[in-house]
Please model this.
Amino acid sequence: MKKGLTEICYKFFNNLANPTRLATLEKLMEKPMSVTELAAALGQEQSMISHNLKPLLKCNFVFIEKQGKKSIYSANQETIGTLFKAVEVHAEKYCPTGGKCLKEAN
Amino acid sequence: MKKGLTEICYKFFNNLANPTRLATLEKLMEKPMSVTELAAALGQEQSMISHNLKPLLKCNFVFIEKQGKKSIYSANQETIGTLFKAVEVHAEKYCPTGGKCLKEAN
DNA sequence: TATTCATATGAATTATAATTCATTTGATAG
DNA sequence: CTATCAAATGAATTATAATTCATATGAATA
Model:
């Protein structure tokens, strides 16, 4: 691991460590969507989706394409796909309780 | 991505979204160490290292082996290696400023 | 079995991030 | 050019997490 990558990693994982952003990414992995569509699909306020898309966009976890007054967002399939896969692999091998541990207090 | 993995992902990334824990993992990727050694290597208080090792251990990002009064921690090379590599690959392709964006305000 | 070393824990404080609500900007259509 | 729809922004509030400090546990040794 190169020097300084810890800092990048922090920003990187911090960006992903949010339920709204993860749900947004999960939706966008299915297909590109507008902000309004995302808000409807996730049952969240439009402003909240916008706020959360911003950091995802900044780190290129999602891409934007403006279509008239709409902004169509799409997921970075390469990066997000790799990460979700990595979590899946880890969980399968190292979370024998199937996420039961998540319910407990820290 | 399986149903319910969003929740697991949240816990997963949340666990990694911390500078102390990332620095700890980076150190442990080099070689197994005791809590005291880690504290010295990172210039942090022992209690802080212990506090931060706890969630890493819980998700099996690190492993523990007790040697007398010492606790020797080691990294889960498989998972952490994969993740760090993924960040590296992403950063190389999608962070053209070389992390310069990290300095700016959100 | 008292003492020391290593680690873990609890609880309070401090710092950081998420969410909401009001408002603004930008684009298109009437 | 003004009304409407879509998205973005700002600022205040609320929620979460990190850090510190004091203390407790547990193992080894004199």
Q: What stands out?
A: The longest helix of chain B spans residues 77-94.
